[in-house]
Specification:
The chain has a domain of 91 residues: Alpha-Beta Plaits (2-Layer Sandwich), CATH 3.30.70.330. Helices cover 43% and strands 10% of the residues. The chain contains 5 helices and 6 strands. Strand 4 and strand 5 form a beta hairpin.
């Protein structure tokens, strides 16, 4: 087919010139003559003395470096924690309440919950003296507060009944104030606290911390204990409240019974009135019937008279 191509295209398919031959630069390996392999014993005197050799520098691996940094950071945190624990004094807190034994700790509060809302929810247990809502440096709420009651029994009532109460869509957790009532108590930031949601990994943490499930029996009262007289007063108050509630229930029942009697009487009077109305209606119907009968009889008499007249005229 190429013979039919024009000359300009045939030039494109023309063969190139052969590669020029060049002689080798060196002899081939099998043509060379060598002395073979020799030992290094003749060169040992040229080596340095092993005693003069400096010790080798050991390079730190990546795992060792990470472990060292972790250990150094843990030591720094432990030192800082120890120093803060040494200067920790809960009695010198600036924004603390007056009486720690009348103070209730409330956590897991909705960030949108206001102080007035919290007061309305916890005022049902007794009069509140002060509410302190904790916030950070940027004035954002931290989700917990301290409520100081005027009476200690009201705080105990709130501690017993307000746990798990739902406020603004979140269930709150209540507890007594432990910083100034429990000896040796430390907050969460100093390694204390009762919560277990931030202990470590997922295998260690618990999803919901509950202060009631932990082994504690309230604040330490070595310097100021809850006396037996106060407990008796508290129990008597509870009994008196239960008696008052019983009396109120009995009164309400009596009122209900008296009202039901009055309603029955009214119903009976209405029934009597309805019976009288029925009798009167029957009598009126009878009268109407008698009147209609009289009218029909009169009409008949008139017809008969008219017929008689017509007959006479004929």
């Amino acid at each position: 087919m190429t013979q039919y191509l024009p000359p300009n295209l045939l030039q494109l398919f023309a063969a190139r010139e052969p590669i020029p031959y060049l002689p080798p630069v060196d002899k081939l390996p099998h043509e060379k003559k060598t002395r073979g392999y020799l030992g290094v014993g003749n060169f040992l005197n040229s080596f340095e003395d092993p005693k003069d050799t400096p010790p080798c520098t050991r390079v730190e691996t990546r795992a060792e470096r990470l472990e060292r940094r972790r250990r150094e950071k843990a030591e720094q945190v432990a030192y800082k924690l120890e120093r803060e624990i040494a200067i920790w004094d809960p009695q010198a807190l600036a924004n603390a309440t007056e009486d720690p034994f009348k103070t209730l700790f409330v956590s897991r509060i909705n960030y949108d919950t206001s102080e007035s809302k919290l007061r309305r929810e916890f005022e049902i247990y007794g009069p509140i003296k002060n509410i302190i809502m904790i916030s950070d440096k940027n004035s954002k709420p931290r989700g917990y507060a301290f409520i100081e009651y005027e009476h200690e029994r009201d705080m105990h009532s709130a501690y017993k009944h307000a746990d798990g109460k739902k406020i603004d869509g979140k269930r709150v957790l209540v507890d007594v104030e432990r910083a100034r009532t429990v000896k040796g108590w430390l907050p969460r930031r100093l390694g204390g606290g009762l919560g277990g949601t931030r202990r470590g990994g997922a295998d260690v943490n618990i999803k919901h911390s509950d202060s009631r499930s932990l082994d504690h029996r309230g604040p330490d009262r070595e310097h100021r204990g809850l006396q037996i007289a106060d407990r008796r007063r508290y129990d008597e108050r509870r009994r008196s409240r239960s008696r008052d509630r019983r009396e109120v229930r009995e009164r309400s029942r009596e009122r209900h019974r008296s009202r039901s009697r009055e309603r029955r009487k009214r119903r009976g009077s209405r029934d009597d009135y309805d019976g009288l109305d029925k009798k009167e209606r029957k009598e009126s119907k009878k009268k109407k019937r008698s009147k209609s009968r009289d009218r029909s009889e009169k009409k008949r008499d008139r017809r008969d008279r008219d017929k008689d007249r017509d007959i006479n005229y004929q």
